[in-house]
Amino acid sequence: MTMPDRTPKYLLFLVLAVCIALAGCSIGKKPSAPEGLQTYIDANLRFSISYPESWAEFLSTTGYGPYGPYSVDWNVQKEGLNNDISMMVISIPLHEVVPGIKAETFLVDLHPNLIITGNEAESLPAGEASRLSGYTPDKTLQAWALDNSRRHYILVFTAPPDYFATQMTLFNSIAHSFEPHND
After folding, report:
1. Structural domain count, the chain
2. Is residue 154 part of a domain?
3. How far is residue 111's CA from residue 39's CA, in Å, rounded to a whole number?
4. Which residues lie closer than 8 Å to 156 by C-beta, 6 or more apart?
5. Residue-wise pLDDT tens digits, 141-174
6. CB-count exposure of residue 173 (10 Å: 0-12, 13-18, 19+)
7. I need a labelling partner for 87 at 20 to 30 A (CA). Which of 16, 29, 53, 129 fits?
């Protein structure tokens, strides 16, 4: 008595299993934003980040200040606040950064009256970062600075001092959504 040839069934099962495994891979997958947030992707500055949908109208891709060509920003105007909430992402190629320059230097260039009050290491999904805290006479600031193999990134959040603490959970969530993109 001969046994039936099961090779086609096993081969079909193997092909099906490989297809299912490949479908679950994230190769080429577009970053997705948590509920209430949308994702901004900048192919030129090589990053993506999530931000509140209500901030979309405040997005400026021209940047400002000394890092204008290397930045995008959101200056959110809230009724009743004496100053704006802002978020800026700076992305500079490492070959254009002076060796040994610290993130504090970039921040003081943007906010000349800035007093840095803290600098501590923090792990973000994008990698190891320096988390900097500080203030000016009219703003409180939180920033994360990190590098990948090709770029230096700084995420900067500011808000009026009396409003800043209420935004920290949001700022942390946005910083944790940041993804550098490789060239």
Report:
1. 1
2. no
3. 27
4. 86, 87, 88, 89, 90, 107, 110, 141, 142, 143
5. 999 999 888 899 999 999 999 889 999 999 999 9
6. middle
7. 29
Instruction: Write out the residue range of the structural domain in which residue 72 sits.
Output: 39-148+164-180
pLDDT of residue 162: 87
Query: CA 113, CA 60: separation in Å to the nearest integer?
Result: 24
CB burial of residue 113 (10 Å; 0-12, 13-18, 19+): exposed
* Alpha carbon distance 52, 45 (integer Å): 20
Is residue 111 in some structural domain? yes
- Residues 47 and 178 sit within 8 Å (Cβ to Cβ): yes
pLDDT per residue as tens digits for the range 52-93: 998 988 888 877 778 888 999 998 887 665 558 899 999 999
Q: Is 57 helix (H, G, I), strand (E, B) or coil?
A: helix
What's the residue count for the chain? Answer: 183
What's the burial of 31, exposed, middle or buried (CB within 10 Å: 0-12/13-18/19+)? Answer: middle
